[in-house]
Specification:
Blueprint (H helix, E strand, L loop, with lengths): L4 E5 L5 E2 L2 E4 L2 E5 L9 E8 L9 E6 L8 E2 L3 E4 L2 E7 L6 E6 L8 E8 L2 H11 L1 H12 L3 H13 L5 H9 L4 H12 L7 E7 L4 H12 L6 E7 L6 H12 L3 E5 L5 H11 L5 E4 L10 H11 L5 E9 L5 E5 L6 H6 L7 E4 H6 L11 H10 L7 E12 L7 H4 L1 H16 L5 E4 L5 E4 L9 E7 L3 H13 L6 E7 L5 H9 L6 E5 L6 H11 L4 E5 L3 E3 L4 H9 L4 E9 L5 E3 L2 E3 L5 E3 L19 E2 L7 E5 H6 L13 H11 L3 E12 L11 H23 L18
Parallel strand pairs: 1-11, 12-13, 12-15, 13-14, 16-19, 22-23, 22-25, 23-24, 27-33
Antiparallel strand pairs: 1-2, 3-4, 4-10, 5-9, 5-11, 6-7, 6-10, 8-9, 15-18, 16-17, 16-18, 20-21, 25-32, 26-33, 27-28, 27-32, 29-30, 31-33
Helix pairs in contact: 1-2, 1-3, 2-3, 6-7, 12-14
Protein name: Glycosyltransferase 2-like domain-containing protein
């Protein structure tokens, strides 16, 4: 037991609940309390002394076998309090409270479960969404209980205020107590690191420059210096303004260039004057929130060997309104090849910045991307830290005088040249991709390695024929062998299809009778394969463009890549698979599920190759030696569901990256041959496999490094 107050409140006397803590977080046993089917409000009061990166995740456990349940969509209501109102599952066993951030334990001070009466629920529903509440009452009055409950649940989950502004008020606003706590914490530190803020300046509007300077002065962390280099501004008000700030604050030092050298030279001059161990980059028209450098200093103290630190960011308009937040992934080398997702806030170890030569003149507009590509090339990702907090406000107003605005005509060429220099030594090539992002084209050796395509199947010859026609007739790849793993096909159409390929050396049929076990069928196919690259492919996948397999193979051959996944579309053109996000629905779910296939996705994610924690086994390529080294699919405990996620997590555990690419796009007629989980037996098996995944990968499922902890775990659509 732990010293956390937990109370069940309802009609009659209150009841104290016992809270247990284990390696995965907190558990409140709810079996036998009569809560099954009841409507409740669960309120979590966070401990004020808890770390700011604590992000509690509540889930309802409905099985004794499961360690975690399906996450509930609780919302922050301010002052460290979050709450959820809804109907408890009939088979409720426990309430779980875990932390999304790196497995750190949650620190609540109080947990309250309050039974809600029907009048109270209806009143709450009317206060949040009157229209939905009216429909709930209407259908309930007609005796349509299920429909009425559905509208009631929607009304209770509706937020009277939504969007980013509401999130800022609930989750990104420091009160006086939090500011005092931060000040006290910093005062107790021994040898706090000095952070040098580098600011190149050239003719910004005095108002925005003043805002930028004051944002540094307002930092709760006092151990900083501001190194300003005036890059020969022509507006006489600029040097006067800088001189006044420098005279008033000895931490601000100003130098002036005799001639305009553009952002690279001005920043390098500022870095040459830096005395701090780390340098933070701030444009002359942007701003830092008051806790930015404090969060950076905490990261440095936690890991003094860091080389690169970066944070989430948003934009700010002329009136100071914040919008368009970018909640980023942890370090993603593949995504950095395509776009500079790291800026801003960027903080670099000073000696590392100088060692790579600083910013390079001639790359204006993409000078930061060029720096980050060179800095991270061969850098151990353990020395890179992403802080999942908005620590930079990027001014988006036109005419603000940003260097990137003035250099926009050269930005794309500079970005492509920067990537070319990194990848050319091993034969890579940078091309312009969709939306102007980089596309990295990797070489394939000559002769190309054989690819063994492994297709488990049971009848449905009309689907398999489409897949085979696409492989043999519409795929531009020289050496393919297809291993069809036949699981008790009985239909004459299937026998006829196999007969058509009887004399074709490119296709072999391996008979594996018995109950359907996708993992076992795939392992049997891999054992029969002769290729050095394996491609696991469902029998309901349709080829729609010729270069897809070359793309997958070129990435699968990269030594530190363990598996590669494709972009899969439904027949209606919407996204079926954009990579796998851990934690969605309790275990994992697909990214961007159901969005238009041509949509760019969250900050262009669906247009560029990037890393993921897992990819679907419906189209998964990997080297045969990697597959063998990690032991293949788990045919014992994960016969149907999540075996691909489990495989990818073991591949990542072995030190490899998983990559998803949009440049291999296919159509997936999902589960048409196997059907849905629509029988009690299938549902029981699915629940067992959920329990296996949660027991085996609990901490990883709560903290997908490629999906920001500020985003909702209810779906993989990158929403708050």
């Amino acid at each position: 037991m732990v010293d956390i107050e937990a109370v069940l409140v309802g009609v009659g006397a209150n009841r104290t609940l016992v809270v247990h803590r284990d390696a995965d977080g907190l558990r409140l046993d709810l079996a036998g309390l009569g809560l099954g089917g009841a409507w409740v409000t669960i309120t979590l009061h966070d401990n004020p002394a808890a770390p700011r990166e604590a992000h509690p995740l509540m889930s309802l456990v409905v099985s004794d076998e499961a360690r975690f349940g399906v996450p509930v969509a609780h919302e922050a209501v301010g002052a460290g309090v979050s709450a959820w109102t809804g109907q408890v599952p009939a088979t409720i066993r426990a309430l779980r409270v875990a932390n999304l951030a790196g497995g750190r334990p949650p620190h609540p001070s109080r947990i309250t479960i309050r039974r809600r009466t029907r009048p109270a629920l209806v009143a709450r529903a009317f206060s949040r969404a009157p229209g939905l509440a009216v429909r709930a009452v209407y259908w309930r009055s007609l005796g349509k209980r299920v429909r009425g409950r559905s509208f009631l649940d929607r009304a209770l989950r509706h937020r009277s205020e939504g969007g980013y502004a509401a999130w800022i008020r609930r989750a990104d606003t420091l009160d006086a107590a939090e500011r005092r706590r931060i000040a006290a914490e910093v005062a107790a530190w021994e040898a706090p690191p000095l952070i040098s803020v580098l600011m190149p300046v050239h003719d910004p509007a005095p108002k925005v420059l003043r805002t930028a300077l004051r944002s540094v002065q307002a930092q709760l962390y006092p151990y900083w210096e501001l190194c300003v280099v005036d890059d020969a501004s022509t507006d006489p008000r600029i040097p006067q303004l800088l001189a006044r700030f420098a005279a008033a604050d000895p931490r601000i030092r100003v130098a002036r260039r005799a001639e305009n050298g553009h952002i690279a030279r001005a920043t390098n001059d500022a870095a040459a004057a830096a005395r701090g161990t780390f340098c933070a980059f701030l444009d002359h028209d942007d701003a830092l929130p008051v806790h930015a450098l404090y969060e950076v200093a905490r990261a440095i103290r936690a890991n003094p060997d860091l080389v690169l630190i970066y944070s989430d960011e948003d934009k700010v308009d002329r009136r100071g309104n914040r919008f368009d937040p970018h909640f980023k992934a942890d370090f993603d080398r593949e995504l950095l090849y395509a776009q500079n997702y790291i800026n801003h806030l960027t903080v670099v170890r000073t000696e590392a910045f100088r060692a790579v030569g600083g910013l390079r003149p001639g790359f204006e507009g993409s000078q930061d991307h060029d720096l980050l590509l060179r800095l991270t090339d061969r850098l151990d990702p353990a020395r890179i830290r992403h802080i999942p907090a908005v620590l930079y406000h990027w001014r988006a107003a036109s005419g603000s005088g940003t260097f990137s605005d003035r250099a926009s005509a050269r930005t794309e060429a500079a970005r492509l040249r920067a990537l070319d220099e990194i990848v050319a030594p091993w034969g890579g090539r940078a091309e312009r991709g969709p939306a102007g992002f980089n596309r990295l084209v990797r070489p394939i050796p000559d002769p190309a390695p054989r690819v063994s395509v492994i297709i488990p199947t049971r009848d449905r010859a009309e689907l398999l024929r489409v897949t085979l026609d696409g492989l043999f007739g519409r795929t531009d790849y020289p050496t393919i062998e297809v291993v069809v793993v036949d699981n008790d096909s009985r239909e004459p159409e299937t026998r006829a299809l196999f007969a058509e390929y009887r004399d074709d050396p490119r296709l072999r049929v391996v008979a594996v009778p018995g109950a359907f076990n996708f993992s076992d069928l795939s392992n049997r196919g891999a054992a029969a394969a002769t290729g050095s690259v394996l491609l696991f492919l469902n029998n309901d996948v349709e080829v729609v463009e010729p270069g897809w397999l070359r793309e997958l193979v070129s990435i699968a051959l990269v030594p530190d890549v363990g598996a590669v996944g494709a972009k899969l579309l439904y027949p209606d053109g919407t996204v079926q698979h954009g990579g796998v996000i851990l934690g969605i629905g309790g275990v994992a779910g697909h990214s961007h599920l159901g969005v238009d296939g041509d949509a760019p996705g969250y900050f262009g994610r669906m247009t560029v190759a990037h890393e993921a924690s897992a990819v679907t086994g419906a189209c998964l390529a990997m080297r045969a030696d990697v597959f063998a080294a990690v032991g293949g699919f788990d045919a014992q405990d994960l016969k149907v569901a999540f075996n691909d996620v489990d495989l990818c997590l073991r591949v990542r555990e072995a030190g490899y990256r998983i990559v998803w690419t949009p440049f291999a796009t296919l159509v997936h007629h999902e589960s048409k041959s196997r059907g849905q989980e629509d029988t009690p037996e299938k549902q029981a098996r699915f629940e067992r496999e959920v329990a296996v995944m949660q027991a085996r990968w609990g901490a990883q499922l709560r903290a997908d490094p490629y999906y920001n902890i500020n985003l909702s775990r209810i779906s993989g659509h990158y929403r708050l």
